[in-house]
Write a structure and sequence with these properties.
- Pfam families: Metallophos.
- This is Metallophosphatase family protein.
- InterPro entries: Calcineurin-like_PHP, Metallo-depent_PP-like.
- It is built from 5 helices and 13 strands.
- With about 230 residues, it is of the alpha/beta class.
- The strands form 2 sheets. A 7-stranded mixed beta sheet has the order 4-5-6-3-2-1-13.
């Protein structure tokens, strides 16, 4: 089986209970739509988080969120082929995989593209408090072009999109942080995703980032819910 959930920020207790109830094994895939809590600290605490997550039994397919360190920047990760696309894998935790942005996977016969990245609206707070913030949290222009090239190769047709943030026209205004001046927020990722959504022939889209459960047309925001793919 394949399931999806939203941002976990390193907390997998509810997913561990779900895994026990469903007798999850390595043939079962759980898609995490970003902000996984893996590699966040840059020290041994990361190993503790990953040990606990790996013990659930699932194969985890992770979309990179803005609070995830880019696996491409970490020497412990390497690219491997997986279900028609490419993922970053650390051999110490072979069941924890990060999707390469623009990879199109075959998930239960559905062509599924992965697109990570987003802007941290709490960037100033994080820097002031000494919390982790990653300068490469958003896709670069080259990474965006690589995603577009992968979609163009498929004539801009896929079944499913898995992203961290969403296209601009779908941004849930009710979920925006009240204390943040929205005029200061960098919406480059959402604006670019809107150009993708405008061109793409797709059936459904799943994203996280906004900590909300909501269906908007063909797009589903996921947070704590665990959905069947």
């Amino acid at each position: 089986m394949i399931y999806l959930t939203g941002d976990t920020h390193g907390s997998y207790r509810h997913i561990r209970a779900f895994a026990r109830e469903h007798d999850a094994g390595p043939g079962d895939v759980l898609v995490c739509l970003g902000d996984t809590g893996f590699d966040y600290y840059g020290d041994e605490r990361d190993a503790q988080v990953k040990d606990k997550a790996a013990s659930m039994g699932f194969t985890l397919l992770c979309i990179r969120g803005n609070h995830d360190r880019n696996p491409a920047s970490l020497p412990s990760y390497h690219l491997i082929p997986w279900r028609g696309g490419e993922v970053y894998c650390d051999d110490r935790w072979p069941s924890i995989l990060f999707a390469r942005d623009g990879s199109v996977f075959d998930l239960d016969g559905r062509a599924t593209v992965a697109i990570g990245g987003a802007y941290s609206v709490d960037k100033a707070y994080r820097l002031a408090k000494g919390y982790a913030w990653f300068p490469d949290e958003q896709l670069t222009a080259d990474e965006q072009r690589a995603v577009e090239a992968a979609l163009a190769h498929r004539d801009w047709r896929v079944d499913t999109v898995l992203s961290h943030t969403c296209p601009a026209s779908f941004v849930p205004q009710e979920a925006l942080l009240a204390g943040v001046d929205q005029s200061t927020v960098d919406t480059a990722m959402e604006d670019w995703l809107q150009t993708v959504e405008d061109r793409l022939d797709y059936r459904r889209w799943f994203c996280g980032h906004f900590h909300i459960e909501k269906q908007e047309a063909n797009l589903r925001f996921v947070y704590h819910d665990i959905l069947e793919f």
